[in-house]
Each structure stands twice: as structure tokens, then as C-alpha cells.
Amino acid sequence: IVCLGDTHYSSMRWRTKELKEQNHYFYSRIFETFFAQDADLYVSLGDLTHYGSRREFGSVYRLIHQYKKADQRFEAVVGNHDLLV
């Protein structure tokens, strides 16, 4: 089991194009490294998003599901930041 916690993914709704690009690059590298590990299960231990908005969940899950392993072996525990909206 590989675990990751408190990623606090933000869709950066009110930020500049450059900051959004850096944000995307940063999280792409995190999930690339996360799913590069050989495991039977990949788990987010809460606070996958920062504000818990649909936009954030949609964006972060688009990143996550780029990895075939995530389709059947990714589970997310809901954290307090995932429930803010």
C-alpha cells in the first residue's frame, strides 16, 4: 500500500496563467512519483483538495486517472478540506 496525504490540490481559480501552469506541473510530478511505486493499493489519506470544490475534484481526478493503476486501485479518504464547499 502506498499512501499520500494532505496534497491540498487547488485549481488556482484566481491565479495567473503562469501560476496555474506551475501548479499543474507540481501536482503532475507528485502523482507521477506516487503511481510509479509498485503497490496493490494507492491511498490518499485526506485533504486531497484544498477547498473541496467540484472544480478541484474534477481537476485532480483528471490528473490521477492519467495513470491506469488509479482506475481500479486508488482510494481517497475524505479530509476536512475536502468538505469545505
Write the layout of secondary structure elements.
Layout: E1 2-4, H1 17-36, E2 42-44, H2 54-64, H3 68-73, E3 74-76
Parallel strand pairs: 1-2, 2-3
Report on this model:
There is one protein chain. The protein has three helices and three strands. The chain has helices spanning 17-36, 54-64, 68-73, and strands spanning 2-4, 42-44, 74-76. It has a three-stranded parallel β-sheet. The model has no long low-confidence stretch (mean pLDDT 92).
Cα-atom radius of gyration: 12 Å
Structural class: mainly alpha
Quaternary structure state of the chains depicted? single chain
> What is the H/E string?
EHEHHE
Strand content: 5-15%
Q: Uncertain runs with pLDDT below 50, 5 residues or more?
A: none
Number of helices: 3
* Strand order, largest beta sheet: 1-2-3
Q: What is the average of the pLDDT values?
A: 92
Please bin the fraction of helical residues: 40-55%
Shape: globular
- Give the beta-strand count: 3
Largest sheet: 3 strands, parallel
Distance between the termini: 30 Å
